[in-house]
Design a protein that fits this description.
- The chain is an alpha/beta fold and about 450 residues long.
- Helices cover about 45% and strands about 10% of the residues.
- It has 3 domains: about 1-20 and about 190-335, no CATH class; about 25-190, P-loop containing nucleotide triphosphate hydrolases (Rossmann fold); about 375-454, Roll (Membrane-bound Lytic Murein Transglycosylase D, Chain A), CATH 3.10.350.
- The protein has helices at about 1-5, 25-40, 55-65, 85-95, 105-120, 135-145, 165-170, 175-180, 195-205, 215-225, 230-245, 255-265, 285-290, 300-310, 310-315, 320-335, 400-410, 415-425, 445-454, and strands at about 45-50, 70-75, 125-130, 150, 155, 155-160, 180-190, 375, 390-395, 440-445.
- The strands form 3 sheets. A 5-stranded parallel beta sheet has the order 2-3-6-1-7, sandwiched between helices. Strands 8-9-10 form a 3-stranded antiparallel beta sheet. Strands 4-5 form a two-stranded antiparallel sheet.
- The model is unreliable at about 270-320, about 325-390 and about 445-454 (pLDDT under 50).
Length: about 450
């Protein structure tokens, strides 16, 4: 295992959605804010579309976490179902009894539940993941769920998440009514090359790495190219590259190791393909589910390691020549006009890490940012000197720090932000100590940034 060799405290490129490793790229932050604002304003239907491996399910869990205590939610993964089964899954996830009930009775019980929750001041949100797999008849049932409404508001908010095929489905004539109801459409695009470098360094930092640059600029560029900016593929590539580097006793990962790892994962043939942005270009579900199987088995990987170790002496003999050649290639590629030049490595703890990630804002369509414990602004707390669309209320969670919150949610932390926070929170005496459960008001952006966007 390479953890000891590279002095890592834990596995930095695992496959489980550990929230500590969540990296908020500008695109992720904008999508999260758009969905939060759509739910806050009761838009009814929202959608989130992303390629496989972009982390849309993790983003939905983060969105749900931010509404903790203010939303009664249902999260459905079972998309291979009929209309009756969908209603049963929904009611069971909401804690309602669906046994021995027909569709009419389930609708009535659900309607009563939604009215009770609304009177209690809670929103009810239905998240449907992998929604592109729903049949047309079930999608029509989902549309009819939006008919639960009071004279002044929707009683149920519905978020459809899926692959680009979902957009293609919603554009079909038979689903026009559903497509027209989606008021907020968020997308997660592949990470640009510089963001891929930040993503790698962020995960290494969380895993406890404190040495010199582990992946050379050439290696980072190769990872960004062959992964096509998809976080899941970045994780697979980095894991295999570190495994190979450990076997070869290389303290730093160069582009040649990345290329070999990419070959093991069959990513070389995909390196030249740009990320699919056309909704019609998407892998069928069967291929999507089979993707993780491209990771080499332990037996083949072990055999390969033995072969590499047996030739270790050859590697050592030609090491100097290889490094000189790599340096020449790297210097030559940096001279090219279109060559990727990675930005300085940064992570979420850096004050400038997210300085360029301000959310887009258009007149009449304000966007609110979000994080753990985030809740809609309370009209009774509105500050007359501040546009309510430019401020949001946050409920402090355990271990929160104001600096980390501002870097994640506002995009920066400096004297101007501190001054604005003091103005919005006159009772907040100490910015360095926050208490769990405490409510604070945070600016979405400075007035100058707001004017620049317009």
């Amino acid at each position: 295992m390479f953890l000891d060799f590279y002095q890592l405290h834990e596995q930095p490129f695992g496959v489980t959605p550990d929230p500590r490793y969540l990296y908020f790229s500008p695109g992720h932050r904008e999508a999260l804010a758009s969905l939060f604002y759509g739910i806050e304003t009761g838009r009814g239907f929202l959608s989130l579309v992303a390629q496989p491996g972009m982390g849309k399910t993790t983003l939905l869990f983060q969105l749900l976490k931010r509404w903790k205590g203010y939303v009664h939610s249902a999260f459905l993964f079972q998309t291979q179902c009929d209309s009756r089964e969908l209603l049963r899954y929904l009611m069971e996830d909401l804690g309602l009894d669906s046994q021995d009930r027909d569709i009419v009775r389930m609708h009535a019980d659900l309607n009563d539940f939604l009215f009770r929750e609304t009177k209690a001041g809670k929103r009810v949100v239905l998240f449907i993941d992998e929604a592109q797999n729903l049949s047309d008849s079930v999608l029509e049932t989902v549309r009819l769920l939006s008919d639960f409404e009071a004279p002044d508001r929707k009683l149920l908010q519905i978020v459809l998440a899926g692959q680009p095929e979902l957009e293609q489905r919603l554009a079909q004539p038979g689903l026009t009514q559903l497509g027209q109801r989606i008021a907020v459409r968020a997308r997660l695009e592949a990470l640009p090359a510089a963001e891929a470098v930040r993503y790698i360094n962020h995960r290494l930092h969380v895993a406890g790495y404190q040495g010199t640059e582990l992946f050379t600029p050439g290696a980072a560029a190769a990872i960004a190219e062959r992964s096509r900016g998809i976080p899941r593929l970045i994780n697979h590539l980095c894991f295999n590259a570190l495994s190979l580097g450990c076997a070869m006793r290389c303290r730093q990962i160069g582009p040649e190791i990345v290329r070999e790892a990419a070959g093991d994962l069959a990513l070389d043939s995909q390196a030249a393909k740009p990320p699919a942005t056309n909704p019609q270009v998407t892998r069928p579900p069967a291929q999507r589910r089979a993707a993780p199987q491209t990771v080499p088995s332990f037996t083949s990987f072990s055999s390969r390691m033995k072969g590499k170790l047996s030739h270790q002496r050859i590697y050592q003999t030609s090491f100097l020549a290889l490094m000189l050649l790599s340096l020449a290639i790297y210097l030559g590629t940096r001279a090219g006009a279109g060559t990727f030049q990675p930005e300085p490595a940064s992570d979420l703890s850096s004050p400038n890490a997210s300085a360029s990630s301000s959310l887009k804002h258009t007149p009449g369509s304000p966007v609110a940012a979000a994080s753990d414990g985030l809740q809609p602004p309370d009209p009774q707390q509105a500050d007359g000197r501040q546009d309510s669309s430019n401020v949001f209320t946050y409920i402090v969670q355990p271990d929160d720090t104001l600096r980390a919150l501002c870097l994640s949610l506002v995009g920066r932390y400096d004297e101007a932000i501190q001054k604005e926070i003091r103005r919005l929170n006159p009772n907040l005496k100490d910015l360095t100590h926050l208490s769990a459960g405490q409510e604070i008001r945070l600016p979405l952006s400075s007035s100058k940034q707001r004017e620049d966007r317009h």
